């Protein structure tokens, strides 16, 4: 009961300090942590613009991978302090390595990426999600849902099996799926490349 009282006091203090402004409180009692994200319209618009900019780069990487014959239409960029520090696409065919996915890019030569965000053209597969989680990346933004990849023969049924487990829910990673135009652009990658690339 004391923990709930502490949360109530914190919430009241924050709302009193910020008067009429709205806050989104993300409270994880399971982990015992509280994080506050601003919901000011100007802030949300800036975040939306950033997300669009970096997701567009991830989609460009997806096209680049197919055009180069490196692998499937999956791209990702890692961002640190608003700068792209790594950009990669699927390299499965180039390296004949089924684990050479875009999100598993090794360009940073670091294991822990807690200050970074990752933008992926498509919802990560379980292997890539595991790598993202283990690297402690703080935020994941993806464009297309995994189902969109069925157009190229990629049906990652294991993602559905894992999605219902606690593995995804217990992650401290902030996960956002793009919406509107961003999602449509990311999903079009599969439709536009299916003549050039098929999984099997």
Explain this structure:
There is one protein chain. The protein has 200 residues and is of the alpha/beta class. The protein has two domains: 1-39, no CATH class; 46-193, Cytidine Deaminase, domain 2, CATH 3.40.140.10. The protein is 40% helix and 21% strand. It has a five-stranded mixed β-sheet. Strands 1-2 form a two-stranded antiparallel ribbon. The longest helix is centred in the N-terminal third of the chain and has 27 residues, at 41-67. The radius of gyration is 19 Å and the shape is globular. The termini are far apart.
Task: From the structure above, extract its key features.
globular, Cytidine Deaminase, domain 2, 7 strands, 200 residues, 40% helix, disordered N terminus, two-stranded antiparallel ribbon, alpha/beta, 2 domains, 5-stranded mixed sheet, 21% strand, 7 helices
Low-pLDDT segments: 1-39
Span between N and C termini? 56 Å
Which architecture of the largest domain would the CATH scheme give at its second level?
3-Layer(aba) Sandwich
Tell me the CATH topology of the largest domain.
Cytidine Deaminase, domain 2
- The helix-strand sequence is HEEHEEHEHEHHEH
Strand content: 15-25%
**What number of domains?**
2
Q: What is the CATH homologous superfamily assignment of the largest domain?
A: Cytidine Deaminase, domain 2
Helical fraction equals: 40-55%
Shape: globular
Biggest sheet descriptor: 5 strands, mixed
Task: Please give the radius of gyration in angstroms.
Answer: 19 Å
Given the helix and strand composition, which structural class is it? alpha/beta
Average pLDDT for all residues: 73
CATH class of the largest domain: Alpha Beta
């Amino acid at each position: 009961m004391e923990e709930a009282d502490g949360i109530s006091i914190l919430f009241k203090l924050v709302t009193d300090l910020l008067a009429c402004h709205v806050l989104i409180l993300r409270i994880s009692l399971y982990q015992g942590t509280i994080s506050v994200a601003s919901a000011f319209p100007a802030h949300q618009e800036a975040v939306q613009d950033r997300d669009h900019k970096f997701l567009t780069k991830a989609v460009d990487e997806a096209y680049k991978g197919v055009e180069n014959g490196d692998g499937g239409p999956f791209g990702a960029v890692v961002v640190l302090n608003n700068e792209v520090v790594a950009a990669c696409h699927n390299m499965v065919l180039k390296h004949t390595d089924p684990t050479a996915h875009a999100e598993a890019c090794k360009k940073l030569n670091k294991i822990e990426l807690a200050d970074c965000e990752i933008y992926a053209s498509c919802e990560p597969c379980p292997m890539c999600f595991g790598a993202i989680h283990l690297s402690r990346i703080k935020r994941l933004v993806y464009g297309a849902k995994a189902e969109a990849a069925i157009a190229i023969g990629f049906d990652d049924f294991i993602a559905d099996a894992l999605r219902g487990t606690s593995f995804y829910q217990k992650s401290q990673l902030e996960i956002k799926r793009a919406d509107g135009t961003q999602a449509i652009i990311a999903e079009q990658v599969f439709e536009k490349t299916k003549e050039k690339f098929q999984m099997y």
